[in-house]
Amino acid sequence: MLHTQLEPHLLRRMKKDVLRGMPPKQEQIVRVELTAKQRGIYKQLLARHFPMLARGGISALANVVMQLRKCCAHPYLFGEEGPSASASDGTEQLVACSGKLQLLDTLMGRLIVRGHRTLIYSQ
């Protein structure tokens, strides 16, 4: 009842009504290979948690899945040694250890040259 009384006084605009020239959202899913370090950690996680996975249980499965997702993001998230002090910036080592960052590094270089604007969401 309150909504019907307030409706004539409220201005509600939809994005499709305001930005008519906006192109539709494009989404592309790109599969990326894990680096050797990531593959090793991934296998260790599965081996360590195999008995727990064999018994079942949703909470155990959820925990293992989160660990595997972390491994796919970057191996340094597991307390692995970080970039060595001998590297001038350490950025090269950070990128080299993660398949996602390797792809992102290549992709962003190309997009910047072409003048694209990017917005990156990360978990």
From TrEMBL:
InterPro entries to which the protein is assigned, alphabetical: P-loop_NTPase, SNF2-like_sf, SNF2_N
The keyword tRNA processing belongs to this UniProt entry's keyword annotation: no
Organism taxonomic ancestry: Eukaryota, Viridiplantae, Chlorophyta, core chlorophytes, Chlorophyceae
Signal peptide feature range: none
Protein name, per record: SNF2 N-terminal domain-containing protein
GO molecular function, one term: chromatin binding
One term under GO cellular component: chromatin
Keywords, sorted A to Z: Nucleus
Subcellular location, record wording: Nucleus
Domain (SNF2 N-terminal) ranges: 2-77
One Pfam family in the UniProt entry: SNF2-rel_dom
Keyword Nucleotidyltransferase: no
